[in-house]
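Review form for a predicted model. The reviewer records the input and the model, then writes brief findings.
Reviewer: anonymous (R2)
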Amino acid sequence: MSIKGRAYIAGAYEHPTRKAPDKSVAQLHAEVARGALADAGLTKDDVDGYFCAGDAPGMGPLSMVDYMNLRVRHVDSTDVGGSSYLVHVAHAAEAIAAGKCKVALITLAGRPRSEGMATGTQPRAGNLSQPDVQFEYPYGVTVANAYAMVAMRHMHEFGTTSEQLAWIKVAASHHAQHNPNAMLRDVVTVEEVVNSPLVADPLHRLDCCVISDGGGALVVVAPEVARSLNRPRVKIIGAGEAPKGQLGGKVDLTYSGARWSGPAAFAEAGVTPADIKYASIYDSFTITVLVQLEDLGFCGKGQGGRFVSDGNLISGVGKLPFNTDGGGLCNNHPANRGGITKVIEAVRQLRGEAHPAVQVKNCDLALAHGTGGLLGTRHGSGTLILERE
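Model under review:
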């Protein structure tokens, strides 16, 4: 079933805090829900579908529906890491098209900063019942070194350099300077990135995303609901999702699940990468962005380093403005599932509500893409194509 034009994003809200020692995760979920519903011009009593992932406390949607006093007839707790919330938008559109709900609320929240989580460098034990994890557990894989392996392989295969990766951070910092809520607002240079301490060779500290508290929420609605609201209409016209695992030992670190989710989204939308005016790309690390840009078709495989060089991702300067809120590299990365923020900024751009210094001119077509899990082992990919109506 195609979801093209079958649902709209009517509400989007990002929590302004980046550290919330005085709030619970459930409270953050409720606060972003209230913000997104207010943005849409709706109330909690209008909600009849609810979506959340593994960041929600307790039993996920069961606990949160009760906590927020919602009365819903459809729930979804799909958890594919950082791509969860892009997949949720697609699943919400599918549920709306199938008549399961008309107003779907999607919330994300987390407190990794307040809880002192070493999310990048702490070994991930995983669940030993997972057959793939059994082969990795003895090596103590961490998030940082799993992504560093991808960066090292890309450099080996294609001649990509640390300086080229650094341009991704530079672009994010140029945008973050205009975001009063961003954790890192100082503009950095290529030299500052490559001279920052190594975390996992070849990735430096400034190649890594921030760790923040906070969250965000979206409201996806049926077309008739969208038409009744006094808000700019952002239509969902394409979506794709795909997992990538160990493939029975045939490991190739040079590509991601975006190789499959991207083409599926573009095909459903009936557009090409060249048509996209703005791209929100999941940026847990600079290498994450580079690989996804290639797999989504914005440049050829192995050409990502040249594509991002010299500021091509900077709004008003380059070919493909990206992450104009500063992204995970500079703005925020809550709950280890920062994909929802990619959709939120894409909605801002399509509405013309991004900061004037980074607003893309005539932005009528945007892509949002998320990666969840570890790029070097197993992960999910979710791609959305959104259009201003």
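Findings: The longest strand covers residues 234-244.
Further findings: The two ends are 22 Å apart (CA to CA).
Recommendation: see findings above.
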